[in-house]
Design goal:
Length: 196
């Protein structure tokens, strides 16, 4: 959290656990993700990823960036992690901290990333309205969505289509590689999340 603590609750809102990150000085954590029911990962302003038990015991840590990290996510299997940091590089890690891929190409802040259902591809979007489709090799494909800023990008459950949404309130459905198949006007105020 914003005070350097990680807290968990029951679904009814009762506190379960709380622990501080940092010994003498709180380290603000920007994002966390569950790897499995007993393990989670967090990233923070110090550019470090930490792996924890759900009881607050730190299992591992490694530096993911020299700049602050603001997002961590796990593949569906919980065995692959991705991190975003203020240097606009997407990094893919093993659960033990081995760097597998560094995906660079975004020139603006990365807003959204998502693995496809099989965790073979990754899609990302940024504030410039560009979408990148990665196969964990150097950038395969990118295209301009003609949306002011893409706040959300995600795969359909079968992985065949992508949806982008953002600042201009439009939702666009894409068939990779970058073929627009449908456009909807969703909101005048912008859209920052959606689900198929």
């Amino acid at each position: 959290g914003g005070d350097g603590w990680i807290r968990s609750w029951t679904l009814s809102g009762q506190p379960l656990q709380a622990w501080a990150v940092g010994v003498n000085k709180p380290i603000i954590q920007k994002s966390l993700t569950l790897l499995n029911p007993n393990t989670l990962a967090s990233v923070g302003e110090d550019g470090v990823l930490r792996v924890w038990t759900n009881q607050g015991q730190q299992l591992n840590q490694w530096r993911v960036s020299l700049t602050p990290a603001y997002f961590v996510a796990a593949s569906a299997s919980g065995k692959t992690l991705l991190t975003l940091s203020e240097d606009n590089v997407i990094r893919i890690w093993t659960i033990t901290g081995l760097l597998q891929h560094e995906l660079s190409g975004h020139e603006r802040f990365v807003n959204s990333v998502e693995f496809n259902p099989a965790a073979q591809l990754l899609v990302s979007s940024d504030r410039s309205g560009r979408v990148f489709l990665w196969d964990f090799e150097p950038r395969n494909l990118s295209w301009a969505t003609l949306q002011a800023s893409v706040w959300y990008i995600g795969f359909s459950p079968d992985g065949a289509d992508l949806a982008s949404a953002g600042k201009d309130g439009s939702i666009k459905i894409w068939r990779p590689p970058g073929q627009l198949s449908q456009e909807l006007q969703g909101s005048q105020r912008g859209i920052n999340a959606l689900a198929f």
